[in-house]
Every structure is written in structure tokens, then in C-alpha cells.
Design goal:
Length: 154
């Protein structure tokens, strides 16, 4: 039996609204990401001071694991109203930490050839690697923190 799930577009819009001294300085940008036929959305409770795996990426699907080359969009939103979260993009040889303040979102356009961590170097000489895992830590908060994880794939 063939799948009845059709490919669709994921429409993403980022909007900033700010009026300073009576003048609008906001903007809005949108993109349609085509070929989406799989989404995963979940709210996860992060235990205080513990690294929690949010998603993994590999060559085959599994529970909480996505096919690296098929992922087109990843969003992580800190749902807390006071505490930050540290997000780790882990690769085979690199790790990149991102500080995500309360109420904020982090967007990764794809995990494939997405990161390189260097202490110093020349721009343009990076050797980008696949993100293989995304973990989060409550940034030393004494309470658990909720995050929303959204992944869209083809």
C-alpha cells in the first residue's frame, strides 16, 4: 500500500514588531519550505542540571531520531518565563553551545553540514559537519524547564 501522505510546504514567518519614537522599525521575513511529509512536535520537561537529548540524527529513523538528509527545519523554543536553557548541537568531532533565554526560539535550517566549532580561524575555511544530536541543559536552574521541539522532514 502506498502512502497517502502528500508532500506539502511548511510556511515559516519571522516577524519583529518595534516602534521607537513613533517610527516602525519592525520587519517580517517568510519562507516556504517544500517537500514536507513528516513532522514531530513535542513539549519536553528538562530536569534541573541534567543533559537531556531532544533529538538525534542518523541515516535511519527511530524513536526521537530523524534521517539527517531529510530534515529541513528544526525549532526549539524555551517555554519557561524566567530561566534560560543551554542547547548543544553535537557532531562527530564538534559541539556548539547556544544560550537560549526564556521565551526565545532557536531555529536550525538543517542538521546536515551545519556546524563547525573552531577556536580561531579564517572565515570561509570551516569544514562543516552534520549535527548528530541536540541536547539541552537547564543552565543551572534549580527547577525543571519545558521546551518545545519541532522537526519537519521530507
Amino acid at each position: 500500500m502506498a502512502s497517502t501522505v502528500a508532500n506539502v510546504s511548511l510556511n515559516v514567518q519571522v516577524t519583529e514588531n518595534v516602534v521607537l519614537n513613533g517610527e516602525d522599525h519592525g520587519s517580517s521575513n517568510s519562507v516556504a519550505i517544500t517537500g514536507i511529509n513528516e513532522v514531530s512536535k513535542r513539549i519536553m520537561n528538562l530536569t534541573a542540571n541534567t543533559d537531556i537529548t531532544l533529538a538525534t540524527f542518523s541515516t535511519g529513523p527511530a524513536a526521537g531520531q530523524f534521517v539527517t538528509s531529510n530534515v529541513k527545519y528544526v525549532r526549539i523554543t524555551n517555554l519557561d518565563d524566567a530561566n534560560p536553557v543551554n542547547i548543544n548541537l553535537g557532531g562527530a568531532a564538534e559541539n556548539v553551545w547556544v544560550y537560549l533565554d526564556w521565551g526565545r526560539s532557536f531555529i536550525l535550517s538543517q542538521p546536515e553540514t551545519a556546524i563547525d566549532a573552531v577556536a580561531s580561524g579564517t572565515v570561509g575555511t570551516a569544514s562543516l559537519a552534520d549535527v548528530t544530536t541536540i541536547t539541552a541543559n537547564t543552565a543551572n536552574a534549580s527547577n525543571a524547564i519545558d521546551v518545545e521541539v519541532f522537526v519537519a522532514s521530507s
